[in-house]
Amino acid sequence: MLMEIASRIQKGLDRHSLDNTLKFDCGEDGVISLVDGRALLENVETDCTIRISASNLDKLIHGKLNPMSAFALGKIKVSGDMSVAMKLGKLLG
User: Reduced to 3 states, what is the DSSP secondary structure of residue 7?
Assistant: First the structure.
């Protein structure tokens, strides 16, 4: 599942560059790190980490999960530079 999600995120990165680094930490399912314009299935140090289940990340990138609601409900946890997380709307939109 993460390979498909990374591929979809890569399409967003191809359209809109991200100057910072960001990681989606999906626990036991793995991680997707956004580094140097690439979506990698590698765990690297990033400016911001978003902890989210793989199923919720899939819903998020398909527009079926509102990021603000998910954050308020604890489905998304953000650590590091919060301003990087706020750039996701443009990337995923």
Answer: helix
